[in-house]
Amino acid sequence: MRVIAKSIATPLLLLNLLSTAAAAQDTIRLGYPETPAGAVAVVADKADLWTKNGLKVESIAFAAAINARDAIIGGRLDVGITGLSNFLVGSQETGLVALGIAVDQCASAAVVVKPGSEIKTIADLKGKRIASQTGTITQSAFVNGVLKSAGLTAGDVQMVNLRFQDMISALAAGSVDAVTAVDPFLSSAEHAKVGVIITDFCPYSRVPLIYAASDKFMKNPDLVRKLVATWRETGKLFETEPQRATQIYSDALKARGYELPPEVVTKMISRLNVKQDGVLFSPEFLTFVGEEGQVMQKAGQLSKAPDLAVSFPKQPVD
After folding, report:
1. Residues with Cβ < 8 Å from 315, sequence gap 6 or more?
2. Domain total for the chain?
3. What is the pLDDT averaged over residues 96-113?
4. What angle, 0 to 180 degrees and rounded to 10, lies between the N-to-C axes of helices 221-240 and 242-255?
5. Confidence check: pLDDT of 16 > 70
């Protein structure tokens, strides 16, 4: 009896183990930054849009978008939100693939100075100490878009490498003359009247974050299609029900211990400008990516120009 029981139990045990492994593989591990750029992932999760579209997603927050990219490369994530510059490096070195555009942060990134500063225009930045976080799409947009619009280069200013979360305090202390602030620090500083916006980045450059995935994940077209559909549905919620999206994100912030004034959260969400079709790659966007890749190649950040057909494949849209 013992031998029979063992022979029956072993296949059953193996079946259970295989079923558990399959279930684990069906769970998509998705990483997003704790900054407002990750609000799209938070809202999709809290509004239960993943389940609605037949997906099982484990959402994981990271301090910054680059951490999510590194987690995909390390095999700890299937999909994540990361900045364009870091995505292009990852796509060239490890085969990351873009699923869509998470958000364009051009309105959520701005040149900020202290109240009463003599700096009133971009041209006034010449010779000044400017805080910017090295290696980010924000810095690239500042140098190649904002400064260039006034005929300036990075050599015309004193670039100071600071993390985004440290910029406003450095500005208040007088350590720098201006900062390239992003949300939530941008809207919070504006609300507290400790920072004055000279300009946001929209007139000069896009500041996109990308939905990136491993090449292994891209081999499942059904999951890819459902993800793109869910992100488009999330964009529609932001576009047609902005108050609901704002409330969902505000509640999520409170759950993490961040009690921001409602008007600050509202401003942050509005600046993201998330829309249903914003996730799609337009010809204009792909042209921008190609130009950004060429700039990065000249700067030695890429060994060659990105292959857009490989890194930004045609998106499955129902």
Report:
1. 99, 100, 228, 279, 280, 281
2. 2
3. 95
4. 110
5. no
